[in-house]
């Protein structure tokens, strides 16, 4: 199963995805974050919130493209979801495959360890003593995951808990399943 | 072989797009699928006498349309020029988004909604953990998806995406399965013209509809190209 998923991710990435120059992508994202920092006077909490929101808005549309390109059917467990997110989702949009670890015993929370992060190439956080504590540089990824998973009825909390840019050992993204959303039913006719 | 109407519902159960082909919107009761007139059994998108614009169409254009249809019969795809022409005709003869909020759209949705629930509850897969059960019973699972239902007068095809969009097309009862067509509409029409269009919302407000011209045109051309090969 896991192998098939990996194969699918590779195939989709090789044959169906339009590619852009990765440096262009990295630098564009860098300029966005830099501009946000200027706009909000280095209020990094606010910058995190803004990148998260951008990501969310990307995610709610990205899921359509994901479903079209992969033609996957619904996952039967959250473990499958994690595999798909890592081996197909990250692979097709960023060409990286994060490792999945640190499952909690109730299988509702897992971590994605980003061994390489294309967003963070060439990046140095501002040296003001604050950025390394408050800014989650790649926070847009959390928003994307949150938005995309919500569209397939998985209400998740997503957030970074460590980042190599801050001097941590690894870049770790934590995903927690809050609930499986119930289907909406039509409003009753009075 | 005619196509009667095409509908899209979003995940909030609102009808965000409806398209009627050659059926009048003047039926006062307004709550039956208007696919019953016998005249429709033979002609493609046959002019329906009750339709409001029909009287304004010159007779000559109707006959040219009919002849162009019969000459194109048997070809898999009509040339794009004749498609455009036919799409134009359809735009004049059909209605867009006129029925989103009336009983027809709501009843159609209710029917499909209930059928799907039944389909899901008749067969439920084995689960081991509570979480798997939650995943399976939540919704939108595809293990036992509804594809179509048929009556004497029409066949209703249904496709639901994993993020809750529902595509419905009502055709002549003898039509083949149109699952693949609905999937193709999602992939090659809805995705480029709606999802990738920054001006279109992701969550539609109540009463908000898809009125994007490119989308409407693409849908019309798609169904026009398909009507020859429906069986």
From TrEMBL, chain A:
Keywords: Endoplasmic reticulum, ER-Golgi transport, Golgi apparatus, Transport
Gene Ontology CC terms, in alphabetical order: endoplasmic reticulum; Golgi apparatus; TRAPP complex
Residue stretches spanning the membrane: none
Predominant place of localization: endoplasmic reticulum
Taxonomy, superkingdom: Eukaryota
Listed InterPro entries: Bet3 (IPR016721), NO_sig/Golgi_transp_ligand-bd (IPR024096), TRAPP_component (IPR007194)
Biological process per Gene Ontology, one example term: Golgi vesicle transport
SUPFAM superfamilies the UniProt entry points to: Ligand-binding domain in the NO signalling and Golgi transport
Family matches, as Gene3D superfamilies: Trafficking protein particle complex subunit 3
Subcellular location: Endoplasmic reticulum; Golgi apparatus, cis-Golgi network
Similarity-based family: Belongs to the TRAPP small subunits family. BET3 subfamily.
Name the UniProt record assigns to this protein: Trafficking protein particle complex subunit BET3
Species this chain originates from: Ogataea haglerorum
Automatic annotation (TrEMBL), chain B:
Coiled coil: none
InterPro entries: Longin-like_dom_sf, TRAPPC
Record field: compositional bias (Low complexity): 53-71
Compositional bias per record (Polar residues), positions renumbered to this chain: 23-52
Subcellular location as annotated: Endoplasmic reticulum; Golgi apparatus, cis-Golgi network
Complex and partners: Part of the multisubunit transport protein particle (TRAPP) complex.
Record-stated family: Belongs to the TRAPP small subunits family. BET5 subfamily.
Pfam family, one: Sybindin
GO biological-process terms attached to the record: endoplasmic reticulum to Golgi vesicle-mediated transport
GO (cellular component) term, any one: endoplasmic reticulum
Region (Disordered): 23-84
Keywords: Endoplasmic reticulum, ER-Golgi transport, Golgi apparatus, Transport
Superkingdom assignment: Eukaryota
Protein name, entry field: Trafficking protein particle complex subunit
């Amino acid at each position: 199963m896991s192998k098939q998923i990996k194969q699918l991710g590779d195939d989709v990435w090789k044959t169906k995805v339009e590619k852009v120059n990765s440096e262009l992508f990295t630098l564009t994202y860098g300029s966005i974050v830099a501009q946000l920092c200027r706009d909000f006077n280095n209020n990094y909490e606010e910058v995190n919130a803004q990148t998260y929101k951008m990501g969310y808005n990307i995610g709610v549309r990205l899921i359509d493209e994901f479903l079209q390109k992969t033609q996957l059917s619904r996952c039967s467990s959250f473990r499958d979801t994690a595999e798909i997110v890592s081996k197909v989702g990250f692979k097709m949009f960023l060409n990286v495959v994060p490792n999945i670890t640190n499952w909690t015993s109730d299988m509702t929370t897992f971590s994605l360890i980003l061994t390489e992060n294309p967003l963070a190439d060439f990046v140095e956080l501002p040296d003001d003593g604050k950025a390394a504590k408050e800014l989650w540089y790649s926070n847009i990824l959390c928003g994307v995951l949150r938005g995309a998973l919500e569209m397939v009825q998985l209400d998740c909390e997503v957030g970074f808990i460590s980042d190599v840019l801050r001097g941590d050992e690894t870049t770790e993204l934590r995903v927690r399943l809050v609930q499986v959303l119930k289907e909406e039913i039509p409003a009753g006719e009075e | 072989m005619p196509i009667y109407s095409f509908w899209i519902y979003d995940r909030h159960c609102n009808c965000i797009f409806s398209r009627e082909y050659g059926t009048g919107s003047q039926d006062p009761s307004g709550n039956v699928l208007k696919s019953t007139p016998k005249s429709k059994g033979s002609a493609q998108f046959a002019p329906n006498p009750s339709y409001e614009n029909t009287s304004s169409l010159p007779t000559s254009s109707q006959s040219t349309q009919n002849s162009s249809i019969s000459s194109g019969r048997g070809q898999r795809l009509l040339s794009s020029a004749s498609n455009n022409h036919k799409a134009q005709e359809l735009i004049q003869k059909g209605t867009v988004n006129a029925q989103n909020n009336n009983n027809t759209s709501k009843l159609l949705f209710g029917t499909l909604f209930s059928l799907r629930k039944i389909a899901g509850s008749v067969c439920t897969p084995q689960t081991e953990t509570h979480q798997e059960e939650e995943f399976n019973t939540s919704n939108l699972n595809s293990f036992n998806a509804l594809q179509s239902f048929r009556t004497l007068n029409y066949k209703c095809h249904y496709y639901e995406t994993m993020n809750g969009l529902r595509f419905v097309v009502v055709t002549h009862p003898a039509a083949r399965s149109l699952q693949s067509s609905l999937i193709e509409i999602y992939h090659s029409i809805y995705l480029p013209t709606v999802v990738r269009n920054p001006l279109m919302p992701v969550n539609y407000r109540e009463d908000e509809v898809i009125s994007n011209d490119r989308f409407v045109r693409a849908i019309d051309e798609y169904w026009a190209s398909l009507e020859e090969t429906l069986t």
